[in-house]
Prior knowledge:
The protein is mostly helical. The chain is built from six helices and two strands; from the N terminus they run H-H-H-E-E-H-H-H.
Amino acid sequence: MISRKGKYGIRALLYIARQPESCPVSVEQIASSEGIPRKFLEAIMLELKLGGLVHSSRGKGGGYTLQKTPKRITIGQIIRAVDGPIAPVPCVSATAYAPCTDCPEESTCAVRLVMLEVREAISRVVDLKTLEALLEEADVLAPSDSHSFHI
């Protein structure tokens, strides 16, 4: 299950993606517009920066901009940057594999086999869905005077 932190990360990047490219967006702007607690958002933005998804600039007129175009940022990248691996159990993680301590034989473990299918299905969706595609879908779903798209 995606955490609140993951949902806020997606919403924050959607907000930034809607702004003109050269205009940094402050945490205060995002927090106020999206209804996200400012301190929580600051921590999320740091993780998104460390994940290579946003740039930050300090000082007057500073804030956050996307490091890549919305077409090159996937929802999976955002989720992994703030929530970590998408796998439901560690033995099927593509990025943070760890054997399960209670599993006698990984290759024949029925739980692992089904969780591998779950991870692959989730990954197929979130790794193909870009920020740009989500913005386009939000524009279709939202009234023309509203830019709020809640996950």
